[in-house]
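Page 47, continued from p. 46.
Same chain as before, 424 aa.
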Amino acid sequence: MNFCISRFTLIPLLILLLGACASAPTPQTATLEPIVNQSEDAGSEARFSQNLNQLLNHVAQAQEIPLPILEASFLDAKTIPSIRKLVLPPSGTFKKNWVAYRKRFIEPIRLKAGKAFWHENQAYLSQVEQESGVPAEIIVAIIGIETIYGRQTGSFRVKDVLSTLAFNYPDTPNKSAREQLFKDQLQELILLCWSEAGGTLPAKNSIQGLNTSRLNSCLNQNSSYAGAIGLPQFMPSSIRSFAIDGDGDGKVDLKLSQKDAIASVGNFMKKHGWLVGMPIYFPIKANAIPAAKALADGEPQLKYTVGELINQGILKPEQGNLQTGGVDPQSKAFIVDLPYPDKDGVDQVHYVVGLNNFLAIVQYNRSYFYAQSVAEFAEALGYKNQSAAPRLTAVKTSVKEIVPSEAVKSKSKKASTKKKLNLP
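Result:
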């Protein structure tokens, strides 16, 4: 899920900070992947422990949680040096490659798994689509790209991941901001796990009802190298804010419950501005590359109207018409640039026009590559990337609305006469 780390600063093939890269059985039959724990030298570990203890003290005081319980749960926490390498920005010679990225995620094995997942959960996906307005194909595409439906949920212990990135982030220009971000996520993890273990917030030094075994199980669960959890790869803050109990068992389990994952993705997209019945993106006209290039600034912000892009020759007139599958010409959009080197190593760019729903997907993972992959994965599953306005209008319009009954006509005529005579 969803952790807004910009693709503009990280290597596109490492964009999926919410995903992992292994293969395992489906969630219902899978055993947890082996936990990876590594440590550094004694001096680094000492500094790490000191900083971690300070955060635990802060959380304990702020939430009135008994500090000894938190200290015991983090007694074996370690830094993971390999994670520090995974979050490093790309080298100066690296070329972003949309073609390679797309090929990695929109491929036969993943699509076949997506169709199977959809078939298995068809009824519930339809229910969530009705409730959230988010098409089933989009939900299936996101979970497929994130973890291949639970096969790639990560092999690092989540408390180690977040502690490492909170207190031992690599030396990069944005180190301070990144460390603060992961400190916040580590605090969210503690509060999430405390709640899942039956604790109350604030705890007020009471541990009545607390299951310490469940607390530790939650803190020690496996995650991606960025601390994302479960089938949809939600960060702890997103689990607390957007995760939903879809299967009705009284708890949220994004690791093993497909219904919980489906409902949570639908809720996340709904809460982040998904517009029902609207397309995600438009392809540009064949001769519009120069015009698109002039407007592409890499900023995921809706800044042009579709009408303006039509006038500039970037979009076709029908893309500004709801009756032809387009959108209202006053709808906002922006230019999406997807760079790649061609077979000769020459830099090329594929351009599309991103609409509001493209930006909603970007909120799940701040990557143009990611959002476009979700859109095209969904299309491969049958998603119609066009306005559903004409169809919805037809469904809502009944025969009575088209041809009023005599009673309705008579009532309408009397009301009209009263209005003309100013009668009550």
